[in-house]
Design a protein that fits this description.
Length: 141
C-alpha cells in the first residue's frame, strides 16, 4: 500500500539534490551488520511506500525490512526508528507524526516515523532500527 493520508497535513519536505548516505543498523548488534545505502536523488521515489525520499522508502527499496503496518501513511507507529545522526537535515515531524509516535514503544528524542522522515541530503544519516524490529532486517546483506 502506498500513497498519502488525506486526513493529515502534508509534511514540509525538502528533497535532496546531491548524493548522501544512510547507515542502517539494528539496535542489537548481534542480529546483523549495518547496511550503508548511497541515496541518489534521481532515484526518488525509491519505493511506493512512505513519503517520496523517506527513510522507509529507501530502506524497503534496499532490502531492509522495517515494519510498516499502515503502508506508510502516518496512521500507525510500527515504522518507528531512531535517527541517531543527521536528524537536523530531515523534515520536522508534523503534529500527526508526533501523535502517532506517542503510541510507539521505546520513544526517545531521536524517534521518528521512518515513512514520514525525509533527509534533505546535506548530512550523512545514521538510523538505528529498534530491537523489536530486528527480525525484519533481511539476512544476506
Ligand atoms: S508505516 Fe504506519 S506510520 Fe509509518
Amino acid at each position: 500500500m502506498g500513497g498519502s493520508n488525506p486526513y493529515i497535513k502534508e509534511a514540509d519536505v525538502v528533497l535532496p539534490t546531491t548524493k548522501y548516505r544512510i547507515r542502517f543498523e539494528p539496535e542489537d548488534p548481534a542480529v546483523g551488520e549495518a547496511i550503508i545505502v548511497e541515496v541518489e536523488p534521481e532515484r526518488i521515489p525509491y519505493h511506493e511506500t512512505g513519503q517520496p525520499g523517506s527513510i522507509l522508502s529507501i530502506a524497503l527499496a534496499s532490502g531492509i525490512e522495517i515494519e510498516h503496518s499502515c503502508g506508510g501513511v502516518c496512521a500507525c507507529s510500527t515504522c518507528h526508528v531512531y535517527v541517531k545522526e543527521g536528524l537536523d537535515s530531515c523534515n520536522e515531524a508534523t503534529d500527526d507524526e508526533l501523535d502517532q509516535l506517542e503510541e510507539a514503544r521505546g520513544l526517545t528524542m531521536q524517534s521518528r516515523l521512518s515513512c514520514q522522515t525525509v533527509p534533505n541530503g546535506t548530512k550523512e544519516i545514521r538510523v538505528v532500527i529498534p530491537a523489536w524490529n530486528v527480525n525484519l532486517v533481511k539476512e544476506g546483506h
